[in-house]
């Protein structure tokens, strides 16, 4: 059994026991070890696919902590003008573990 959940503007396929990274959550309100519920888009249980009437369906996750993504280097360069710019970015994520999928 697995589900497709929405977190922010992204959707991810999850099963019980999976550890995933979602966009950064406010960890002051949600401490490490607390649980959250993510909205469900679709549930697949064997041959049964449920995509409608999922108002009561939820995926419960446990917060494991804050992580960072890989470093991305952005470089801009204009020929013959002497313009060059170097910039870096590192996305912040919250790492969560899926504990339950309920219909």
UniProtKB/TrEMBL annotation:
Pfam families: Ribosomal_L21p (PF00829). This is Large ribosomal subunit protein bL21. Keywords: Ribonucleoprotein, Ribosomal protein, RNA-binding, rRNA-binding. Belongs to the bacterial ribosomal protein bL21 family. The gene is rplU. The keyword Metal-binding does not apply. It comes from Nocardioides currus. This protein binds to 23S rRNA in the presence of protein L20. Part of the 50S ribosomal subunit. Contacts protein L20. One of its GO terms (molecular function) is structural constituent of ribosome. InterPro entries: bL21-like, bL21-like_sf, Ribosomal_bL21, Ribosomal_bL21_CS. GO terms for biological process: translation. PROSITE patterns: RIBOSOMAL_L21. SUPFAM superfamilies: L21p-like. GO terms for cellular component: cytoplasm; ribonucleoprotein complex; ribosome.
């Amino acid at each position: 059994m697995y589900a497709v959940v929405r977190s922010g503007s992204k959707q991810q396929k999850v099963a019980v026991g999976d550890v995933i990274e979602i966009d950064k959550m406010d960890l002051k309100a949600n401490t490490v070890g607390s649980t959250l519920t993510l909205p469900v888009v679709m549930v697949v249980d064997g041959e049964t696919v449920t995509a409608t009437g999922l108002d009561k369906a939820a995926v419960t996750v446990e917060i494991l902590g804050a992580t960072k993504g890989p470093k991305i280097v952005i470089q801009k360069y204009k020929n013959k003008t002497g313009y060059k710019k170097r910039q870096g970015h590192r996305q912040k994520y919250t790492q969560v573990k899926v504990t339950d999928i309920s219909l």
